Amino acid sequence: MDHSSDSLDLKIAKSFLDGCGLKASRYPKGKGINELTPDFKVFSGTNHVFNCEVKSLSEDDRFDVLLDAAPPGEIVGGVFSETIFNRISSHVHKAAKQLCAVNPKRDIPNVLAIINHDKNATHLDFHGAATGNAILDSGVELPIYEYYSKGRIKNDLPHLHLILWLDDLTSDWLFFIECDPAHDKLLRSLLSNLPKRPKPLDVNSL
Hints:
Layout: H1 7-19, E1 23-26, E2 40-44, E3 47-57, H2 62-69, H3 84-102, E4 110-116, H4 123-131, E5 134-135, E6 141-142, H5 146-149, H6 153-156, E7 162-167, E8 173-177, H7 181-190, E9 200-201
Parallel strand pairs: 3-4, 4-7, 8-9
Antiparallel strand pairs: 1-2, 2-3, 5-6, 7-8
Helix pairs in contact: 3-4
């Protein structure tokens, strides 16, 4: 997690993992490449079962900043290149680097927890960034976000095994990245007590 991020997000992730019967311990920080360490080592009993990096998805307030700085009556605006999909892709990219720095052979699962504070973002935005598809109310999926899904997130997702979308505004969601059957089975077993069965996300179809 970025140093500027609120430590509350670490507590949110830890609380979620504690609720699953797991123990999250802060990863010791090192030097050199090991400065890329993730936030948590996660244990089931005494077994180190996966690593977890926490990223915060905050509301984009750049328009509000411009508005506050403008004289009364002045029209403000602009084109911002950083969309919600770009921010999600950036979090996935950074997390993959941090997790792979300590687990390069992916001997244990790599997990990314995204803590969402943006009222304009939902788990469907992650789905869109990862698969390129928008889900309509009818359930039909339209491939309108492939510009993002075919970008760097396509290369980064196979280094991860689970995305925890922890939303302080709505419900939480899990996305399993089915790139390693053994890791996928382990994670599903560890999280089997969750009330909702998450929809798998198969990276082979991206």
